[in-house]
User: Fold this.
Amino acid sequence: MIIGMLPIPGISVDINEDISVAFRAGNAKELSVFFNKNIDLNIPNNEGIFSKAQAELIVKDFFDDYTSSAFTILHQGSSKDGAKYSIGNLVTDNGTFRVYYYMKKVGDDYLIFELNLNEEEKDK
Assistant:
């Protein structure tokens, strides 16, 4: 038995992989696990600062309208104060979105403070 390879609930080697899995699955509940108690959200038809619970419902509505088929992280970075950000592409049945999220450490965990989904321009 290889114990070092087993996932431990609540502990992630790479938070971006867990977030990617949630985006690929279109799973707002799993994605909201990584939301701060308040989150700056900018997605189609919804922009503002929302509670974690409100943001989960808004993201669920988004995934109901845009069924996710793929998500790829294109770039990751961090600041001197330890904040992290990622930029990726979310492919859905109704278009492709550029995804940006910004995380800061709260206690022992990184949480998403800002999430943006901007629809990519379609080729003319």
Notes: The chain has a mean pLDDT of 89. The CA atoms of residues 26 and 64 lie 8 Å apart.
